[in-house]
Amino acid sequence: MELAVARSGSNSPITAPPVRPVASPETKRVRPTLCEAAQPEPATISRASDNQRARAGDIVARRCARPGPEVRNQPAATPTGPRVHSPRVTSVPRHGGRRSPVFRASAGRRRYTADPGLTTHRQGASPRTVRTRANTPLVDLALGRVKGAPLTHTALTPDLRPDPLRALDALDRALVCAERGAPDRPLVLIQRDDFVAASQGLRAELRARLDAVLMANDPEAGLDALLTCGALDAVLPEVKALVGFGDGEWRHKDVWKHTKQVVRQAENRVEIRWSALLHDIGKVRTRSVSPDGEVHFFGHAEVGARMFDKLERRTQLFSADDSLRTTVRFLILHHLRAAAYDPSWTDSAVRRFGKEMGDHLPHLLCLSRADITTKRPEKKRKGLRQLDDLFARLGKIQEQDAVVPPLPSGIGDVLMKHFNLPPSRLIGDIKRALESEIDTGDLLSHQPAEFYLDHIATHATRYG
């Protein structure tokens, strides 16, 4: 209906909104249904902006969540304008001091949604029981199915083919344990064939991850993770055999715990960490018990070196690094030599030990220090003190040997040939007399042999 009355100062007519139908007196006054609430006036629809439409959707959501009386046999009013569509609702504001469980969306749990044209809850009904305008079913967003519909389980054929990437992923999880002390994801047991495939096709990647676990801040946690995922059993069964070996009725320390402690105490160098991991693998095959109950591992260093050779032929972990392979085998074979030192050794014995160890001597001393895991403080101090004494004596002897002798090499043979002297104590006395004169500064050092022959001939009475 258009009114003929015009505003002051304006000739344009004013359009009056349509008059809403009035319910009959016999009809019980109830809350408007959602259909009525969702039908705004035509003028509002034609002039509403996007923001206004969004606000209208929020109003619909609030009315959906607000409890109200149940309406029975009440016909819905005829729509008077186009329908306003609101966005899907997954969460609504609080009502009555609590949030509706139907629309609550908590992280990690199933969420349900429905068409926004939901009516209000029935009085006394369960919070999850709702009625929709068109019986719209609730949809489980997590499973993608209608709530209440039967769940169909589809049996998938497991893929049991060897996959080296699964093995590398397990090693990555073990590396996280070694770096942080705890895994970022659950550790699972990987089938043996996966590790075998990785050791054959991805040998470099496998060795790199094992190196990283041994060189991490907490190698003990990393080794336990390797045990849990099956890497030790598949790749290093010689190390796996140490688990549970000892303690209890055997009267000797748990070799697996001892090995992990040695790895942790060892200097953070790859050759020393690998040697610490493998240095006692020969104990499993050499354990013996004497009649008095003492446990011995005679020859376990030599047996361990042979076991390392078999391990390398099987896995070829060190095939790309001959220097590392040689060093690790040498340290396994000789890891008891430094611990056998006694202060009563002569300088000749210390010198011979240093020459036999050669370039591996610094690595051997580091491994020997890490191999002291006793809990008795006095015994530990004694072992460390002996290693320090051995190191000091080796340094002193090497420093003495590095000094060039003052007399030329072979001076004794030259003296016997020139003066026609037989091998006797006199040759040694002449050499010591020459060295004494050099020490006092009466004779020049580092001269040719002819210089000293002329000096002896000139002072024959002095040398007998």
Report the strand count.
Answer: 7
H/E element order = EEHHHEEEHHHHHHHHHEEHHHHHHHH
Structural class: mainly alpha
Strand order of the largest sheet: 3-4-5
Radius of gyration: 46 Å
Global mean pLDDT? 75
Largest sheet: 3 strands, antiparallel
Poorly predicted residue ranges: 1-16, 25-30, 32-48, 68-134
Alpha carbon gap, first and last residue: 152 Å
What is the share of helical residues? 40-55%
Tally of alpha and pi helices: 20
Question: What coarse outline follows from CA principal-axis ratios?
Answer: elongated
The portion of residues forming beta strands comes to under 5%
Description:
The chain has 464 residues and is mostly helical. Among the domains are: 31-68 and 86-91 and 100-147, no CATH class; 411-463, no CATH class. Helices cover 47% and strands 4% of the residues. The chain contains 20 helices and 7 strands. The chain has helices at 34-37, 42-47, 50-65, 164-180, 192-201, 203-214, 219-229, 231-235, 237-240, 255-265, 270-278, 283-286, 300-315, 322-334, 347-357, 361-370, 377-402, 411-419, 425-440, 449-458, and strands spanning 2-6, 13-15, 112-113, 139-140, 145-146, 287-289, 295-297. The chain has a 3-stranded antiparallel sheet with strand order 3-4-5, with no helix packed on it. It has a two-stranded antiparallel sheet with strand order 1-2. A two-stranded antiparallel sheet has the order 6-7. The chain is elongated and about 125 Å long. The termini are far apart. The relative contact order is 0.05. The model is unreliable at 1-16, 25-30, 32-48 and 68-134 (pLDDT under 50).
